[in-house]
Amino acid sequence: MDSYVQWLKEANQPVYEMAGTYWRVYQNALVPACPKPEPTRLSMRQANELLTRSRAVLLRYFTRTVRYPTPFWYTACAEYSFPRLPSKVRGSIRRGFKSCRVERVDPAWLADNGYPCYVAAFSRYRNSQPETKQKFDEMCRVSPEGPFEFWGVFVGDRLAGFAKSAVGSDYSATLVLKLDPNFMHLSTGPALQHTLLNAYVSEQAKPVYAGFRSIAHDTNTHDFLMKSGYSRVYCDLKVVYRPSLQAFIHLLYKCRSVLNRFPESPTKRSIQALLTQEEIRRSAEWDRKHAIRSSLLERIACSVWGNRYGVREK
Predict the structure, then answer these.
(1) Could you give the CA distance from residue 314 to residue 311 in angstroms, rounded to a whole number?
(2) Highest mean pLDDT range out of 121-130, 164-173, 215-224?
(3) Homologous superfamily assigned to 76-233
(4) Which phi and psi angles does 74 have, rounded to 5°?
């Protein structure tokens, strides 16, 4: 069993097993519990059973990766070599280490000292708000018993950014990455990413995964990662709704242009995120039904970009 899933179970956090995959509830959605992205197959009967057992409002996963660009992806780095990076990126990393240092940090120390950095990072995001200090403390303090490692980037004695990684036997996954924008001009981000990729990919031969594209929040994190040695792995998106929510989503999707006329609010942002997710799901489903188009796109992408956009479906 994956070490992260094992930690979830030992921490008495709800985990549900189905079709050889463990699932957990994240923001009212049921998702694969392991932070290492892997294609998953489910029947509709299995999906509905999971929704009933977990009481989640929807279930989200992917079934395949492709070589051509799609609206949904995750970010990963399986090979890392500093000399092979573009000269501009190497220069940013060198400048970063002239101004800052990166080192492992204790989660209890981060709980006591990291919240201002965490809050500052959200000034770069749109449609997103930081969690409370209590939630931040929980994120840090529940970690010592689990397969986690924390890294901090410092400018003098000031914490300028941090990362939380889940480390498995054959992977590392960046669960949290926050940078204080007041220090980003000192290349703190490239220095932190170089340290992570060098430690896990180069030294331990473990691919690093940085999560799926954000649907609810508007950030440029994945664009930043693309410049730091990562690649996008494009995939499809499967979403199964509870029956009551499915009818509601289909109705709202037909009237989604009307939603833009309403004033901004947390409720409006939540609905927009659901509709964006539905749009991505429908796009992926259309590609699947039009296999000739998908095959043509994949051949073109392979000839132009090689393996840059992920791996072929197995």
Answers:
(1) 9
(2) 164-173
(3) Gcn5-related N-acetyltransferase (GNAT) (3.40.630.30)
(4) -125, 160
